[in-house]
Amino acid sequence: MNLETVVLAYSGGLDTSVAIKWIKEKYNLDVIALTIDLGSERDLPSIRQRALDVGAVDAKIVDGRDLFLKYFAFPALQSGAIYEREYPLATAIGRPLIAKLLVDVAHETGAKAVAHGCTGKGNDQVRLDVSVGALDPNLKIIAPVREWKMSRPEEIEYARKNNIPIPATVDSPYSTDVNLWGRSIEAGILEDPWVEPPAEVWLWTKDPKDAPNTPQYIEIEFEKGIPVALDGEALDGVTLVQKLNDIAGEHGVGRIDHVENRLVGIKSREIYEAPASVVLHQAHAALEDMTLSRDQARFKTTVSNQIAEMIYNGLWFSALHQDLRAFVESSQRHVSGTVRVKLFKGASMIAGRKSPRSLYQYELATYDKGDTFDQDAAMGFIKLWGLPLQTQANIQMLGEGVTAPMLPEAESSSC
Fold first, then answer.
1. Catalytic residue among 40, 131, 175, 277
2. Could you tell me the CATH superfamily of domain 5-171?
3. Higher local confidence (pLDDT), 238 or 26
4. How far is CA 133 from CA 18, 80, 101, 140, 310, in A?
5. Which of 79, 124, 131, 353 is catalytic?
6. Buried-most residue among 162, 204, 351, 366 (CB within 10 A)?
7. pTM for the whole structure
């Protein structure tokens, strides 16, 4: 491979720290380390210095938090994208932005290749490779961890021999990924799905038994499906999500223990902490219940599942996603209002919702005085609604002596 410079997505962790040294040895390439802040709360200056100390010729830091929420996390929230009913896709949603910024820096620096620290059995390699290929199919992609096939203890030993500073140890081998939308933890003892996650893996969420004994109520305001205020205070997206992570996490909300189906064909046990995204998805869905018609809501369930699959599978930049996003954006025109959420001992519950665009009308729903529903219309509606069933029963089912095909035959009994 006749290349001179490669842009490496650098996290500062074990895999990418070792990758800087390994790429130089294997390919004789200069490495530009690119660290993207998606809300990981890391010591970014120290990470930059670590990249330079290991051997990177340059180390760039990009604040991608606002971009991440505005163009990726919040659109996924509008879409209702939750993978396999549990995972709000925090890590997966961050990958297309990382790919975009890798491509941008490669263009700026004249690099002909990009690199990442993904393994050959994870999902992120697919997400990054496919996204880079969609944005610039001419860029080469190097994946050192996928190539070297070292075990994690072997990686740690390689780092020690080459004086590479790393945060992981053989005794604490967890692999984590963190952004504003959530935190993922895997490897080590967590690979046994029978074992309860040890207390030390949880950093954002308090153990529910130690959470406050008094419930806390919060109010989240949305405009067109986007959260814009918390407890009556208008906030930018980054601040709102950070505050909500802190508040919900204090009440133990947002812990997810999920055995999921990876794109590469294996099942994987994943631990997630996602206080803000769990609460926001719940509140957003409650507001949609008020503002979407029955047909919109039912069709959107199909779209939500499809988009969740595409995000998980690395197809953010696909034409189909763009098409489905057009539907989602249209569906969110009236999804504005306020949702009240009760947080208590690891649970978040909808306690109230209101919207100036609500399709819920009290005078139609009430059984009390003021009921305006025309009950006289019910008989005609029922007659027309049941007409096809009644016609088929009279002509086909009763004629064959079958009166209740979905019920078992009555059993005879004797005294």
1. 175
2. HUPs (3.40.50.620)
3. 238
4. 25, 26, 13, 9, 16
5. 124
6. 204
7. 0.89
Question: Any residues with CB less than 8 A from the CB of 233 and at least 6 apart, and which?
Answer: none
* Residue 260 burial class via C-beta count within 10 angstroms: exposed 0-12, middle 13-18, buried 19 and up: middle
* Phi, then psi, of 181 in degrees rounded to 5: -85, -15
Give the architecture-level CATH label for domain 178-360.
Answer: Alpha-Beta Complex (3.90)
95 is catalytic: yes
For the question of residue 175 being annotated catalytic, the response is yes
CB-CB contact of 237 with 66 (8 Å) = yes
Of 95, 127, 183, 255, which residue is the catalytic one?
A: 95
Give pLDDT tens digits for 97-148: 999 999 999 999 999 999 998 877 778 899 999 999 999 999 999 998 888 8
User: How much is the pLDDT for 1?
Assistant: 47
Alpha-carbon distances, residue 59 vs 12, 15, 132, 355 (angstroms) = 11, 16, 20, 47
Confidence grade of residue 168 (pLDDT, cut at 50, 70, 90): low
Sheet containing strand 30-37, strands side by side: 58-63, 30-37, 5-9, 113-115, 140-142
- In angstroms, the CA 205 to CA 7 distance is 35
The span from the CA of 336 to the CA of 356, in Å, is 7
Q: What are the structural domain ranges in the chain? A: 5-171, 178-360, 365-397
Distance CA 256, CA 344 (A): 16
Strand 182-186 relative to strand 175-179: parallel, antiparallel, unpaired?
Answer: antiparallel
Q: Could you check whether 5-171 and 178-360 share the same CATH topology?
A: no
Which of 11, 15, 17, 131 is an active site residue? 15
Task: Looking at 7-142, list the stretches that DSSP marks H as alpha helix, in order from N- to C-terminal side.
Answer: 14-27, 44-54, 65-68, 74-79, 90-109, 124-135
